[in-house]
Write a structure and sequence with these properties.
By secondary structure, this protein is mainly alpha-helical. About 55% of the residues lie in helices and about 5% in strands. It contains eleven helices and four strands. α8 (about 195-205) crosses α10.
């Protein structure tokens, strides 16, 4: 068969494969939705593993112990700049979707078709949280379907503020630091509540690949990623372009 509507045989095969994958994913989602998902109602930052802090006689920190160095905090103890930077970079439509961003899924599928498979994902903040809380990182159709189902269930059980709080306390940010409070103290020596815009943008940028973007080992990469976050915040209308340039 010659090219039809600009697509060759390979293009039609890819489209057919996508339709079949979507059908299979729909069947999987339908089956899983009939089941009760374990653990959804027990998602609480108080259950997260945390660091043990050793203090001297004057109350000054001497050392920290723990496999996952985490200091859980509530959302009101996280800089608004950091929360905005995370949303702008990881999930701009976070406040509008139900756990799965259908527009992002369609956009990712289109870009993957025009480049190569897996070039872009469509995971929302809630889907990332579902993966890290209940699943694994293996890239399989079944896992992605479960991720979507868990995400919709999480959105039904928790408010957007609760989801952001848990995400900010669970996310890995490099050098054994989990959660924004432990990471903020490690990288900048300040609490997460005291982060200014440039530091908040840098920390939010680490989520993508913390070990590859750490400012301690790769300062230029970290700077470039921070500037990308600032530009995303400007594009999303969260900050003025002039403020983004100033922060850079």
């Amino acid at each position: 068969m010659k090219k039809v509507l600009g697509l060759g045989r390979r293009g039609w095969i890819i489209l057919l494969a996508l339709h079949l994958a979507a059908a299979v994913a729909g069947i999987i989602v339908g089956l899983v939705l009939l089941q009760d998902l374990p653990g959804i109602d027990r998602m609480d930052i108080a259950r997260l593993s945390r660091v043990t802090i050793l203090l001297d006689r004057h109350g000054e920190q001497l050392h920290t112990l723990g496999e996952q160095r985490r200091i859980p905090v509530t959302l009101d103890r996280i800089s608004p700049w950091l929360v905005k930077a995370v949303v702008a970079t990881e999930d701009p439509r976070f406040m509008k979707h139900f756990g799965v961003d259908l527009k992002a899924v369609a956009r990712a599928a289109l870009r993957n078709l025009t480049s190569h498979w897996g070039a872009e994902g469509a995971s929302t903040i809630t889907m990332q949280l579902a993966r890290d809380e209940f699943l694994n990182r293996r890239k399989t159709l079944y896992r992605k379907a479960l991720e979507a189902v868990y995400a919709t269930q999480i959105e039904q059980h928790y408010s957007k503020e609760d989801i952001l709080t848990h995400y900010c306390n669970r996310v890995y940010l490099g050098h054994g630091r989990y959660g924004v409070e432990a990471a903020s103290r490690f990288y900048f020596g300040v609490n997460a509540a005291d982060l200014d815009l440039p530091r908040a943008a840098l920390l939010a940028g680490l989520i993508q690949a913390p070990e590859r973007l750490t400012p301690f080992r790769h300062p230029q990469r970290a700077r470039n990623r921070r500037n990308h976050v600032l530009r995303r915040m400007a594009v999303e209308g969260i900050i003025e372009p002039a403020l983004a340039e100033q922060a850079q």
